[in-house]
Amino acid sequence: MRNDIAHSGVVESVEDGCVHVRIVQTSACAACKVASHCNASESKEKLIDVFCSNSTSYNIGQVVTVMASRQVATHALMLGFGLPFLILVSVLVLVLILTGNELWAALSGLFALFPYYGVLYLLRDRLRDKLSFWIE
15: helix, coil or strand? Predict the structure, then answer.
């Protein structure tokens, strides 16, 4: 049994090699009977780009299931949140120890993220191949 994440969605548009699928992401309590009376339930619409070679076989308005493996989700979370957090905290502590100035430490921690996200931006095509969705 594969350990995949699946979301049902509707095809919004189709381009050469890319299918744009709109999914509704709901919180766990959104399916509750009293969710309409509770502020904790929430749902968000998201647009997912699925890169595939047979994109012309999908039609606008078609209901599809978008899949991703748990390994892809974990890798994306580490790149998007885990490593930036480690960089921020490491630089913050290092500059605080070296200078003793909290303002410089905070600013250095924030500015240390610019090169990281710049590298992610430059590697976006390579990352897109590794961190991809597919349509079932």
Answer: strand
